[in-house]
Amino acid sequence: MNAYAHLDSQVAEALTLPTPERVEFCRSDRWVGYTRASQILKQLDQLLIYPKTLRMPNLLIVGRSGNGKSSILERFAHRHPIQITAAGSPIAPLLYIQMPDTPDETEFWSTILWALGISHREKDPVPIKKRQVKSALQYASVRLLVIDEFNNLTNAGKKAADLLAAIKGLSNDLKISIVAAGTPAAINALNSDPQMKSRFEPAALDRWKLDSEYLRFLASYEQLLPLAEPSELASRQLAPTIYGMAGETVGATVKLLKAAACCAIESGKERIDEQVLKKLGWTKPGEWDDIARRL
Ligand SMILES: Nc1ncnc2c1ncn2[C@@H]1O[C@H](COP(=O)(O)OP(=O)(O)OP(=O)(O)O)[C@@H](O)[C@H]1O
Ligand SMILES: [Mg+2]
Question: Is 149 helix (H, G, I), strand (E, B) or coil?
């Protein structure tokens, strides 16, 4: 019988690694296909095969910071890499960009051109860049434009409306769908263009609750941490402690589990328990305000 039944078989192999490498293994990102993420990935797959119509459907993945938006997009992008046809032309099902910090139209077009690996002069007039973008997206058969950090649109001030119009124009002309991801501020950004907003379907990543889905996530994540003994993270004792310390976002939970696993390895304990969690010196997300007040 497998001595490490609590671990994924590949992860069990990592138990033989020297301590520093095992710690590095814990710190690297893993993927857990929790229900909501799988649903959203399915929605994204549907968009990829959507026929070219007059009004292309768009999706806005929205959730608090650290709640898994970019991870879903990266997973999706990874599943649909660029391919080259026998004739040598590229087929890129999607293009993944981040909305610039303080965006305007010219920077937006440049961001797309750089993402496509097209060198250009940043100072070129907007219509020239726009034309370049359109022909490059067409050439690469891009069907989906994925824009992360869509909330940065709120930093664009009066230029936000122009930018939304530009994105809408691109979607209309090339018949591509837009997938945007951002914090709830992204919804505010869309409010300035109700017509554009109506083309978006929201895909919310709600705050996590201490429910069966959270317990499943903990149990799945435990299989990915190379610890020789089972921790039973989803148990009645540990799960509420973990949720109390990190709960609410997947990012904070994962950060806590990574730190706890490293501590368990370095201390020779080989499992995560209340003592390990206590030893961590963990700052809860809400405690930042207390620290700021104290200083
Ligand atoms: N499905 C998952 N499985 C395992 N870990 C995950 C998963 N999704 C997210 N994480 C962890 O949570 C962290 C934060 O997730 P992510 O960066 O996707 O959040 P975000 O919503 O994009 O945040 P922000 O709004 O700040 O950009 C990731 O670095 C990763 O460690
Ligand atoms: Mg992100």
Answer: coil
